[in-house]
Structure formats: C-alpha cells, structure tokens
Specification:
A 13-stranded antiparallel sheet has the order 1-2-3-4-5-6-7-8-9-10-11-12-13, with no helix packed on it. α4 (about 355-365) crosses α5. The protein folds into three domains: about 10-95 and about 165-255; about 100-160, no CATH class; about 280-400, no CATH class. The two termini are about 40 Å apart. It has helices at about 100-105, 115-130, 145-160, 355-365, 385-400; strands spanning about 10, 15-20, 25, 30-35, 40-45, 55-60, 70, 80-85, 90-95, 165-175, 180-185, 190-200, 205, 225-230, 235, 240-245, 250, 280-285, 305-315, 315-325, 330-340, 345-350, 370-375. The protein is an alpha+beta fold and about 400 residues long. It has five helices and 23 strands. A hairpin with a 3-residue loop joins β3 (about 25) and β4 (about 30-35).
C-alpha cells in the first residue's frame, strides 16, 4: 500500500508513517526515528509492545561523507565506533562496561539502586584496603584516593547519575567482499566472531557466535551504506529504507526516472555487481546554454549544451559541478561551476552505483588541476570532454582497485 507520494505505508503487518520529505518517521508500536538537518538519521527509539516504558534508545554520529562513525546508548556513552578505509568499513570498536562495573558504579549489593548503604560499604572498603591509590576507588581518576572521590560518590547518589566510568573495548576487524559488503568479523587473535550469508538482494542469515564461546557479537552493517534495524527487518540506507526480503526500497527514488524506470529498485536490479550506498544514482546531466556560460546561445541545438556531473551528496541528495570558461569560450582558464538546480529528466545514470567512482570524481574536482576551457577543443577541454575524461579515469582507477 502506497501513499500519495509513493511511500510504502503497510508492510508485513506494520504501519509506516513518513516525514514531509518522505523519510520514515515511525513504525506503529515498533519504533520512532529522527533526522538532523542533513537528513541523516540521528535517533532511534525501539518500542516494547505491551510495556509502559520505552525500549532501547540509540543515537548515531555520521561523518562528512554520511558514513556511520559511532553509536551511543541512552546515557550518551559511545557503544560502537566504526573505522573506514577508502570508504569501506575496516574495523569496529565495541565499548562494554568493565567486569567490575558494580564496584565502579558504587552499587555494591547489585540491586540496581545506589544508596548511602552502598556508599558506606565503599567507604569502609576504601579505608580498609592498602594505603596506595587504587583505580577502583579513585573515582575522580587523579591517582589519589581522597575526599574528592568520596564527594564524587555522594554527589552522584544525590543526583542519581552514578554510572560506570570504565569500559572495556573490543576491537573487531571487518572482512568485506569485493563490493564492500561485510561478510565476517575477527577479533584481535584472528578468531572469527561473526559471520553472515546473504541472498542476492541482501536478506542476511547471521551467526553471532561462530566460535561457540557463548558471547554473541552484534554487528548491523549490511550492503554498502546500509544499517540493519532488527525491529523491522529493514535496512536504513541514508536517503531511503531498503527491504531485503523484496529487493526494493520503501520510497521512490528522489531523482525520479533518471535512476531507471523502476524507481524502487536497488542497484539496477543487479546487486551482485553494483551497490548503492546512499540509495541514489550518479548522474551525467545537461542543460541549455545561457549567457552565464559566456556563450551567445540560450537554446540547445544539436551538440551545443552544457554538461555536468552529479554525485550523491549527504546534505541535498546530489552535488553537481561542470566545467565552464572564465572568459573567452574559445580559450580561457576553466572554472568548475556549482549546479544548484538540475532536472532529473535531463540526466543519465552512469557508473551503476559504484561508490568508488563517486569518491574519485569528487577528488578530481577538489584536488586536480582545472584544465583550460575551449569549446571547440582547439586550446583545451570543454564541459563534455572534461566529464568524459573524469569518468574514464575514475572507472579505470576503481577497476584497478
């Protein structure tokens, strides 16, 4: 069932509602989601059916390229961090409470409530122990057991904010396939601690304890750019949500038919070869020439038009640039012009969702010399040859990698 904007509103017994810009806002009796001004999901609340209180709360921190950098728990404590190399996930750091959390919390009787009785027990243990500083009782972390530590304990009792101050960190290495989809995790000893098998469109069968040590490792990264939500079975894919059971998105492609005739399809229907880290295509676009292009033409006759490239952008959906002359269109230094508005109907999808190509094109824009502009190619490149050169260079570079 779809709403007027083409958003899926009913799925496997769930009712889905959306924000005005077509982002999933809530799943009835299941979860609520919130987004920042860039459209990145920054908050997730999982509801507990039949319970008076709420379930787990998670917040998310994203990088400049929209990649997930960290997750935090209800109190703001970082629970997981992600490390990337060339846009692909390399490792995960998992932060868990230290084994002596009850002592560090001051909750000596383990009843979940910190009271003055717990404080006096801490006080007694502190002064009956050796005279040297002990990190377990050094709550302020200054290397000295003193009244400041007791004040810290009293303060958190009075405010109800006593929490563990020491966390253990587990390092896991992520093993990806050639498209950047995580397939296994290993710990620092090389032991496999998590593994997964996928159907072609991403339905995952996960083993969270392949080494059989009784400790489950939770890891939610799936296809490139996708994060698994256990409460719905859906994958958050930045601009859209993906359903791996059907191989389609819940919402239509925001660029319309420029990404293909089926605007709900993932990676042109070929996930064995292509990826879609943002739920978007990479575009080669054109528009009519204008006086701003320093050419005396405002129509589009034959080959005379302005061409530019667009790559997935984490703030607006796309980031577009094209080569224009700074003066004489026959021979003048070239400039890269921002294209703030474009018509998706005048664009063609290129490189079939290869995120490596996206990054390479942006690198060409930012870090390479801008060629001289020459509309007739007598003294440099024009917008079309510049785009073609960039695309060919990046396709070759990404194939080599």
């Amino acid at each position: 069932m779809l709403d007027a904007n083409g958003n899926t509103t009913a799925l496997r017994g769930m009712t889905l509602t959306y924000t005005p810009d077509n982002r999933l806002a809530s799943v009835t009796n299941t979860a609520d989601y919130r987004y920042n001004g860039l459209g990145q999901r920054v908050y997730r609340l999982v509801k507990v059916p039949g319970a008076i209180g709420q379930g787990p709360k998670r917040s998310y921190i994203c990088g400049l390229n929209g990649e997930l950098l960290a997750e935090t728990g209800p109190t703001g404590q970082v629970t997981r961090e992600y490390i990337y190399l060339n846009g692909k996930p390399l490792a995960m750091l998992e932060h868990v409470p230290a084994s002596d959390e009850a002592i560090l919390n001051g909750d000596f009787d383990g009843d979940g409530v910190i009271t003055l009785e717990d404080f006096y027990e801490w006080y007694f243990l502190h002064y009956s122990s050796s005279s040297g500083p002990d990190s377990v009782y050094d709550l302020t972390g200054d290397g000295v057991n003193d009244s400041q530590d007791m004040n810290a304990m009293i303060g958190c009792i009075n405010t109800g904010t006593c929490q563990a101050s020491v966390y253990d960190t587990n390092l896991y290495y992520i093993h990806n396939d050639d498209l950047g989809t995580p397939k296994a995790l290993t710990d620092e000893t090389g032991t496999k601690v998590w593994s997964v098998t996928h159907t072609p469109f991403g339905w995952a069968t996960v083993n969270e304890d392949p080494d059989g040590d009784g400790r489950a490792v939770v890891f939610n990264l799936r296809f490139p750019g996708q994060y698994y939500d256990g409460e719905t079975g859906l994958h958050y894919n930045y601009f859209r949500y993906y359903d791996p059971s059907s191989g389609r998105y819940l919402t239509s492609d925001p660029i319309g038919f420029a990404g293909g005739l089926n605007t709900y399809l993932y990676a042109e229907g070929n996930p064995l070869i292509f990826t879609d880290a943002f739920g978007l295509d990479t575009l080669q676009c054109r528009r009519n020439l204008s006086p701003l292009d320093h050419l005396p033409i405002t129509i589009q006759p034959g080959p005379l038009f302005h061409e530019f490239q667009c790559v997935g952008d984490t703030s607006s959906g796309f980031h577009c640039r094209g080569l224009v002359p700074s003066g004489n269109p026959i021979d003048s230094p070239g400039l890269l012009k921002e294209e703030e508005n474009f018509d998706p109907k005048s664009c063609d999808a290129v490189n079939k969702e290869n995120d490596c190509v996206d990054r390479c094109i942006v690198d060409q824009w930012l870090n390479k010399d801008i060629p001289n502009y020459s509309v007739d190619l007598s003294a440099g490149q024009n917008c079309q040859t510049y785009n073609s050169t960039n695309l060919s260079t990046c396709l070759a570079q990404c194939r080599a990698n």
